[in-house]
Amino acid sequence: MSSTRAQDDRCCAVMHERAAALLAAGEPAVVLDGRTYSRRDQVDVLEAFARSIGAELRIVECIAPEAVVAERLARDARAGLHPAANRSIELHRALAAAGEPIEREHVVVDTSVGTTAEQLARCLAWIGPSGTASESLSTASDP
After folding, report:
1. Can you say how many angstroms the Cα of residue 121 is from the centroid of all Cα atoms in its chain?
2. What sign has the CA pseudo-torsion 33, 128, 27, 49?
3. 5-24 vs 40-52: helix axis angle to the nearest 10?
4. Which of 35, 66, 97, 121 sits most deeply, having the most CB atoms within 10 A of its CB?
């Protein structure tokens, strides 16, 4: 399965709807994953959504060296672990080339360093008390 920008945008709208419902139902935090949020307009839409539901937005930018990304993508492709047919190192390179810096406070996590537990701890530390005391919306992208 490959997708168009319009399909990606619709999937994000569905994620936003679900996140809003979860927060309204009392969940203290929601993590959105599945879009790279690598372009300013995508982050702008996310910021507007968070404001519209009164949630604090915390962005986690996940990075890894290209060689690590290539190995992970190849491994997942061999194992059939992802439904997106266009998920490739070429797509990663294209997204990276078209990417724009995140111009708001955020944390960067190198997913090639440390254990998954350590990476998660860093993300949770960034989400901090707002993730447990009030409504919080976080995003992550998985290189």
Report:
1. 16
2. negative
3. 30
4. 35
What is the value of pTM for the model shown?
A: 0.79
Strand arrangement, sheet containing 136-140: 29-33, 136-140, 56-63, 106-110
pLDDT in tens, 98-120: 999 999 999 999 999 999 999 99
Specify whether the backbone of 86 is left (phi greater than 0), alpha (psi in -120 to 50) or beta.
Answer: alpha
C-alpha to C-alpha distance for 31 and 136, rounded to whole angstroms: 9
List the structure tokens of 39.
């372009």
H or E segment and range at residue 125 = helix 116-127
Q: Provide the phi-psi class of 54: left if phi over 0, else alpha when psi is between -120 and 50, else beta.
A: left
- State the number of CA atoms in the 13 A half-sphere of 86 facing the CB: 11
Tokens of 122: 């860093």
127 with 59: CB under 8 angstroms? no
- Which pairing describes strands 56-63 and 106-110: parallel, antiparallel, or unpaired? parallel
* Domain map (residue ranges) of the chain: 5-140
